[in-house]
Amino acid sequence: MSGLNAPFFADDAVATPFWWDAARPNGTNADDIPSTTEVAIIGGGFTGLNAAIVLARAGKQVSVFDADAPGWGASSRNGGFLGPGWAFFDTAMQHGEDVARRVVEESFESLQHVKDVVAREGIDCDLKVVGYFKGAMTPRIYDSLGRNIDRISKVMPCDAYMVPRSEQHKEVGSDLYHGGVAMPGYAGIHPAKYVRGLAEAARRLGARVFGQARVTDLRQADGTFAFKVQGRDVRARQVLIATNGYSGALLPYLKRRIIPVGSGLVATEELPPELMNRLMPKQQMLAGSQRVVTYYRPSPDGKRIILGGRVLDMSGTDRSNVANATYIRSLLLRIFPELAAYKISHYWHGQLGFTFDHLPHVDTIDGVYFAGGYNGTGVARASWLGSRIANRMLGNDDGRTVYGDLAFPSRPFYNGKPWFLPLAVWYYGMLDRWDQR
Ligand SMILES: Cc1cc2nc3c(=O)[nH]c(=O)nc-3n(C[C@H](O)[C@H](O)[C@H](O)COP(=O)(O)OP(=O)(O)OC[C@H]3O[C@@H](n4cnc5c(N)ncnc54)[C@H](O)[C@@H]3O)c2cc1C
Fold first, then answer.
1. Dihedral sign, Cα of residue 174, residue 180, residue 185, residue 189
2. Which residues of the chain fall short of a pLDDT of 70?
3. SS3 338
4. In degrees rounded to 5, what are phi and psi of residue 225?
5. Which residue in 196, 231, 235, 247 sits closest to 42, CA to CA?
6. CA distance 13 to 268
7. No. of H helices and E strands in the chain?
8. Beta pairing, strands 259-268 & 187-188
9. 132 and 87 Cβ atoms separated by less than 8 Å
10. At what angle do helices 97-121 and 378-394 cross, to 10 degrees?
11. In sequence order, what are the residues at sequence separation of 6 or more whose Cβ sits closer than 8 angstroms to the Cβ of residue 75?
12. CA dihedral defined by 328, 333, 335, 339, rounded to 10 degrees?
């Protein structure tokens, strides 16, 4: 019994990521945990494993510890969107044009980094450049997306282009939007296959990757770091924290800076090919312009639609899963009303790591390295910053990144419990509805 009881669920629907059907993260248990290691990486997702690959290639003795199975966190649950971040330009402008330019340049480098790692390590993960279309919810938003492209083009070359409503059906078979912006360089990936391939590559290169290995009690001790893994004492010369949205209480400094935010996704049952061709004529990555984000894509085999949006209740009870899936399905039906006749085969959710300035951060906290805070754009950026911070740990020039130069902000009265999220989602939802009135 899946516990997913609602008429729109398929009989065999499950509350696990669609991606796990092909690549379920599996954990090795912690029996052979070492008592010392040169480098300890806490968290076995894109960040931790990309770092492990760089460090192991450099000959370091590396141990990756994941509290669950390696890849179990956001890295095997995400939408698999992987793109050059034109959208980051505006966010980064809070630090001026130079930082904004570097942020966009690094987003291109991130995408290239993933392509390189996948090719070099021979990872079979359905990585494909397919393009991306963001639909404007109102004519005014369409104009503002156009102005954004103009603004970026004045600073750097930009291949994003506007698609008017009259041409929109070439991008997406929906009447919801008033045109939108197309970004041709965008890619899609099967995230669970990618993270599994990273773990295999790290192991091949000599890194030890442990599952069921929660790290606690991290502290400095006699010029090294000491911590416990499932109650056992371990020492390491260097430590990288790569826990992003699952960081919890490991370091109070991070607790005050990383905001865990929930995102839920549904996958449809397999749809008729002619319907898929009409709804997703380019088989590309898609989203709407709403502040409370909705993103969707075809499954890599082009047979299903996968759609994600914000969810607040991450308890994972049957009741909350059904309520979340009902909400996410309503977003799907708003775009494609004809999908009311089709069932949902999977619902799942995961935790993103947000930051108060909406930018990722690379930091060193009392000698402990950290990379994270990808704000929902970690497929490329976690991979990239995992490899950058590893180079930083090696003392290489390749460790430089714009995200290492920015102050990492917190807010008064924030201590790891995002009490303001329901309020923020309500507020931004209201602004979205106001835009569309
Ligand atoms: C539902 C969802 C959809 C998303 N969609 C996209 C998308 O389409 N495109 C995109 O670019 N980004 C997307 N993201 C964001 C992206 O998935 C993340 O930014 C990225 O996976 C972060 O990787 P990570 O390795 O830093 O963290 P994670 O993959 O979250 O890994 C952190 C790991 O740390 C482990 N851990 C935590 N505490 C401890 C501890 N004390 N000891 C040991 N291990 C510990 C956890 O078990 C976990 O496996 C999405 C995220 C979610 C949740």
1. negative
2. 1, 29-31
3. helix
4. -115, 140
5. 247
6. 10
7. 10, 20
8. unpaired
9. no
10. 90
11. 45, 46, 191, 192, 194, 195, 378, 382
12. 120
Q: Given its phi and psi angles, is residue 223 left (phi above 0), alpha (psi -120 to 50 degrees) or beta?
A: left
In DSSP notation, 26-76 reads -PPPGGG--SEEEEEEE--SHHHHHHHHHHHHTT--EEEE-SSSTT-SGGG
How high is the pLDDT of residue 4?
87
Q: State pTM to two decimals.
A: 0.96
Helices 378-394, 46-57: crossing angle, 10 deg rounding = 30
Tracing tokens 């045109």 back to the chain, one arrives at: 179
CA of 376 to the centre of ligand 1 (A): 9
What's the gap in Å between 75 CA and the centre of ligand 1?
A: 5
Sign of CA dihedral 397, 401, 405, 411: negative
Going from the C-alpha of 337 to that of each of 107, 184, 340, the distances in angstroms are 34, 27, 6
Query: In the numeric block, which tokens belong to residue 194?
Result: 């990618």
What is the tens place of the pLDDT at every residue in 291-337?
Answer: 878 999 999 999 999 999 999 888 999 999 999 999 999 999 999 99
Q: Give pLDDT tens digits for 35-52.
A: 999 999 999 999 999 999
- What is the Cα–Cα distance from 95 to 102, expressed in whole angstroms? 11
> Would you put residue 385 in left (φ > 0), alpha (ψ -120 to 50) or beta?
alpha
Of ligand 1's listed atoms, the one at least distance from the Cα of 25 is 49
Per-residue confidence (pLDDT) for residue 262, from 0 to 100: 93
Q: Is 292 left (phi over 0), alpha (psi -120 to 50) or beta?
A: beta
Q: What count of other Cβ atoms lies within 10 Å of the Cβ of residue 112?
A: 13
432 Cα: distance to centroid of ligand 1 (angstroms)? 27
> What single-letter DSSP state applies at residue 291?
S
The binding-site residues of ligand 1, defined as CB within 6 angstroms of any ligand atom, are 42-48, 65-68, 72-75, 77-81, 214-215, 242-246, 248, 250, 263, 265, 308, 349-352, 372, 374, 376-380, 382
Q: Which amino acid is at 313?
A: D
pLDDT at 169: 97
Single-letter amino acid code for the residue at 100? A
Q: How many CB atoms lie within 10 A of CB 142?
A: 21
* Residue whose C-alpha is closest to residue 66's, from 210, 233, 252: 210
Beta strand 224-229 pairing with 215-221 = antiparallel
Q: Please give the distance of CA 273 from its chain centroid, rounded to a whole number.
A: 29
Distance between terminal CA atoms of the chain? 42
Q: Which domains does the chain have, with CATH numbers?
A: 9-435 (3.50.50.60)
pLDDT of the residue at 35: 95
